[in-house]
Amino acid sequence: ASKGLASTDPGTILPAIADGRVANLFVAEGRRLWGRYERDSRKTSLSGESDGEDLLDLAAVNALNHGTEVYILKQEDIPDNGLLAAELRY
User: Mean pLDDT of all residues in the chain?
Assistant: First the structure.
């Protein structure tokens, strides 16, 4: 993380997946993260369930489509007890 090759921020991870920069994605099992990812502007916003989509599912599906390894872990096994983490290629 200190070299900028890891992130737990959905706003960093979702565009990095689109760029093919994510080597490994870690997603919290059985959790949801509601929000929106605007592909054109590459912006991520968090919202309530009725206003958005599950960003964890979106990240996992997009990562798999880009050939990224996706791991489903218990939340306590993800850095910072987060919902999402990524190891970046560059």
Answer: 94
